[in-house]
Specification:
Elements: E1 3-9, H1 15-24, E2 32-38, E3 43-49, H2 52-56, E4 66-72, E5 87-88, E6 94-99, E7 102-103, H3 105-114, H4 125-137, H5 142-151, E8 154-155, E9 157-163, E10 169-174, E11 179-182, E12 186-190, E13 202-205, E14 210-214, E15 219-225, E16 228-232, E17 237-238, H6 254-271, H7 277-287, E18 292-296, H8 298-313, E19 320-323, H9 327-330, E20 339-344, H10 350-361, E21 365-370, H11 376-380, E22 383-386, H12 399-416, H13 421-453, E23 458-463, H14 468-482, E24 485-490, E25 507-511, H15 516-531, E26 535-540, E27 550-553, H16 562-580
Parallel strand pairs: 18-19, 18-20, 20-21, 21-22, 23-24, 23-25, 25-26, 26-27
Antiparallel strand pairs: 1-4, 1-12, 2-3, 2-4, 5-6, 6-9, 7-8, 9-10, 10-14, 11-12, 11-13, 13-17, 14-15, 15-16
Helix pairs in contact: 3-4, 4-5, 6-12, 6-13, 6-16, 7-12, 8-12, 8-14, 12-16, 13-16, 14-16
Bound molecules: 6-O-phosphono-alpha-D-glucopyranose.
Length: 598
C-alpha cells in the first residue's frame, strides 16, 4: 500500500510538484518516502524514514527535468532507509519505485546475487531494477527490459522507472493502480488522479498488463501479449475533480471538512438523479432470476448492507452482502445469470478487485458503485456509476459513506419505479437542507459527548433495521480514529452475549428508529443496559422521549433516509473524541485509506 508519482518536463524543476503529488498520496501510506531526480547525466536519490515532510521537506536538493517518488507503507522488509524507495541498479543509473507485492522474488534475488548484483535492501522491488539493468546491458531498450523483468515475476505491481540515459519515465501496471496525466510539454504518472490534480485534469488510464513510455512530448502504450509487446492506442479522459478539493479549506482536518461537505454532496446527488437511470435499468435487466451479491469492505460494506435493505424494502429484491475478503469462500453458488454489485470508494481495494475477478471467472456480471475516476474497479466492471463525492483524503470514510447510501437509495428506487426521480430529488434535497441547518449544533453536541466518553475503554453502538449497519459504522468510526474499543450490534442481538460486558459507566450509543414499532423495541433494549449501569446516549428524532442519559436530536426525514442523517453525528462523535485524545483523525495508526494488498 504505497503511492508512486513521476513527472517529466521540458523545463527544469520538478521537485516541488513531485512532492505535492506524493503528499496527495500519503493516505496510501506514510512510513517512509523518497525521490529520484534526473540531473541529465546522473540520478540523485534521496530517501528516508518518515512522512514526505519529514524526509524531504526543507531539504535543499538539486532539481532536474524528470523525477519519480514514493510514499511507502511497509509490506516486504521493515521500515528503514534502505528499504525506502526508489531502488537503484548497481551502477546507480536506473531508479525505480513500486507499489504492490511480488511473488517469487527470493529465487531471482539469489540468482542475481550469484551473477554479481549487490542488493542494498530487503525489498521485493529491488529485484526488478537489477533485472532491468541486466536487460539494458544485453542491449534491450528500457521498455523491453522492464517488460522482460516483470514477466519473470508474479504478484502485483505499479512501477515507474527512470534512467540517467533517457528523458522518459517507463511505467507498467498489473493489479496495482497507475494513471498517466497529460500536460503541456510535460507528462506525469501517479497511483491515482487526485495526486496530479495540481498539474492536470486530463488522464490516460492504463489497463492491467500494460506498459508505457512517458516523455515530455507524449506517451506510448504497449500491452504484453504472449511475451511480445503490442502497441495500444488510447485517448485521454477529463476528470471532474478540481485541485481545490485537495485542500483543507480552513478546516483543521480533512475529516472535518469532509463531514461538512456532506449536505452539498447530497444536493448534487439530488440534482443528478437522472444520471443513475441507465445504470439502474441495466442492473435490473441483468438480474432476471439470478442472485444479486453486494461485495464491499470496511465502511463501504456498511453502505452495502443498507443497500441490501433498500433492495428488499423498496425494490422487493432479494440480495446478499458478502465481505470482499470472504467472497472467494462464500460465492460457490454464483455463476452465469448472477450479478455482483461492488461498492468501493477507491475502486482499488485488493479484496474487492479479487472478488470481482473471481465473479467474472464464474460467469457472473459485474456492476459497481465507485468514487475515484479511472480506478481499477471501473475498468473491470460491465457498468459503473460514480457517487460524485469528490476526493476523500481522511483515512476514515465519511462523505463517501453517506454518498454511497444515497446512491444505493436512488438505484433501488429507480429499479422499482423508473419514474421515482422527482420524488428522490425532493427527498434528498430535504435531507441535505436538514443536515446543513443542524451541522454546527450537531458538532457542538458531539464534542460534549466526546468529552464524556473519551476516557472509556469500551463503547457499544446499537441499532435496529436499516440503522443496524449505521451502528456498525458508528463503532467503526470511533475505534479507527480514537482507538477506543467500540462494537456495533443489532439492538436485539445484544442480549445474546455482549450484555455481559456492561458495567457502570460504559457508554452505549443507540441509534433510534423513526418508526414507532421499532422505537418501542429499542426503548426496552435501552432500559436493559441502563439497569446494568450503562451510560446511554441516544441519537434520535427530536420528538421522541427516551430513557437516556444524553440525547443528540437529529432532524430525520424518514426511516429510509435516516442512516444518512444519523451518520453525521456519529462521525462527529468519533472525530471529536479523537481530537480530545490528541489523535490525528486524518491518519489513524496502522491504517491506510486504500488497501491494495489482500
Ligand atoms: C480501508 C479504508 C476504509 C474503507 C475500506 C474499503 O480500510 O480505511 O475507510 O472503507 O478500506 O475501501 P473502499 O475504497 O473499497 O471503499
Amino acid at each position: 500500500m504505497c503511492g508512486i508519482a513521476g513527472i517529466t518536463r521540458r523545463r527544469a524543476g520538478v521537485l516541488s510538484d513531485l512532492l505535492k503529488a506524493l503528499k496527495n498520496l500519503e493516505y496510501r501510506g506514510y512510513d517512509s518516502a523518497g525521490v529520484a531526480i534526473s540531473l541529465g547525466s546522473r540520478l540523485l536519490v534521496r530517501k528516508g524514514v518518515g512522512t514526505i515532510d519529514q524526509v524531504l521537506g526543507g531539504v535543499s536538493l538539486e532539481d532536474g527535468r524528470m523525477g519519480i517518488g514514493h510514499t511507502r507503507w511497509a509490506t516486504h522488509g521493515g521500515v528503514s532507509v534502505e528499504n525506502a524507495h526508489p531502488h537503484t541498479s548497481c551502477d546507480g543509473r536506473i531508479a525505480l519505485v513500486h507499489n504492490g507485492t511480488l511473488d517469487g522474488f527470493e529465487r531471482l534475488r539469489e540468482e542475481l546475487r550469484a551473477r554479481g548484483h549487490v542488493f542494498k535492501s530487503d525489498t521485493d522491488t529491488e529485484v526488478i531494477v537489477h533485472l532491468v539493468e541486466e536487460g539494458i546491458e544485453e542491449g534491450l531498450d528500457p521498455i523491453s527490459s522492464l517488460s522482460r523483468a516483470l514477466s519473470e515475476l508474479g504478484g502485483s505491481y505499479a512501477v515507474a522507472m527512470i534512467s540517467a540515459d533517457s528523458d522518459s519515465i517507463f511505467v507498467a501496471r498489473y493489479k496495482s493502480p497507475l494513471v498517466i496525466g497529460i500536460g503541456n510539454g510535460e507528462n506525469y504518472c501517479a497511483s491515482d488522479v487526485a495526486a496530479l490534480l495540481h498539474l492536470t485534469r486530463e488522464f490516460v488510464f492504463l489497463e492491467d498488463g500494460e506498459l508505457a513510455e512517458i516523455s515530455p512530448e507524449g506517451i506510448r502504450i504497449w500491452r504484453m501479449v504472449g511475451g511480445k509487446l503490442e502497441s495500444v492506442n488510447r485517448g485521454a479522459e477529463r476528470v471532474e475533480w478540481v485541485p481545490q478539493q485537495m485542500e483543507k479549506g480552513g478546516y483543521e482536518h480533512f475529516m472535518m471538512k469532509e463531514i461538512f461537505e456532506q449536505p452539498h454532496i447530497l444536493r448534487k446527488l439530488a440534482e443528478t438523479v437522472e444520471y443513475y437511470v441507465k445504470f439502474s435499468e441495466g442492473l435490473r435487466s441483468a438480474l432476471k432470476d439470478g442472485w444479486l451479491s453486494i461485495v464491499a469492505a470496511g465502511t463501504s460494506l456498511h453502505a452495502g448492507m443498507i443497500g441490501k435493505y433498500y433492495l428488499s424494502r423498496v425494490s422487493g429484491l432479494r440480495s446478499e452482502v458478502v465481505i470482499a475478503s470472504e467472497f472467494p469462500e462464500w460465492s460457490h453458488h454464483l455463476g452465469k445469470g448472477d450479478v455482483v454489485l461492488a461498492v468501493s470508494q477507491s475502486g482499488e481495494t485488493a479484496d474487492v478487485l479479487e472478488a470481482i475477478r473471481i465473479a467474472r471467472d464464474r460467469g457472473a456480471r459485474v456492476f459497481s458503485i465507485v468514487n475515484v475516476p479511472g480506478s481499477t474497479l471501473t475498468r473491470l466492471s460491465e457498468d459503473y456509476v460514480f457517487i460524485q463525492a469528490g476526493p476523500e483524503i481522511g483515512v476514515a470514510a465519511t462523505k463517501t459513506f453517506t454518498a454511497q447510501v444515497a446512491v444505493l437509495y436512488i438505484i433501488a428506487s429507480l429499479m422499482s419505479d423508473s419514474d421515482s426521480g422527482v420524488r428522490l430529488m425532493r427527498d434528498l434535497e430535504v435531507v441535505s437542507e436538514e443536515i446543513l441547518g443542524s451541522m454546527e449544533g450537531l458538532s457542538e453536541e458531539a464534542r460534549n459527548v466526546a468529552k464524556l466518553i473519551r476516557m472509556s475503554k469500551h463503547a457499544f453502538f446499537l441499532g435496529r433495521g436499516i440503522n443496524y449497519p449505521t451502528a456498525l459504522e458508528g463503532a467503526l468510526k470511533l475505534k479507527e480514529i480514537s482507538y477506543i474499543h467500540a462494537e456495533g450490534y443489532a439492538a436485539g442481538e445484544y442480549k445474546h452475549g455482549p450484555l455481559a460486558l456492561i458495567e457502570e459507566g460504559v457508554p452505549v450509543i443507540a441509534v433510534i428508529p423513526t418508526e414507532e414499532a421499532l422505537v418501542n423495541k429499542i426503548i426496552y433494549n435501552l432500559m436493559e443496559v441502563r439497569a446494568r449501569g450503562a451510560f446511554t446516549i441516544t441519537v434520535q428524532p427530536p420528538e421522541v422521549s427516551l430513557p437516556s442519559d444524553r440525547e443528540i436530536r437529529v432532524r430525520v426525514r424518514d426511516e429510509l433516509t435516516s442512516p444518512i442523517a444519523y451518520a453525521v453525528p456519529l462521525q462527529l462523535i468519533a472525530y471529536h473524541t479523537a481530537v480530545e485524545l490528541g489523535r490525528n483523525p486524518d491518519k489513524p495508526r496502522n491504517l491506510a485509506k486504500s488497501v491494495t494488498v489482500e
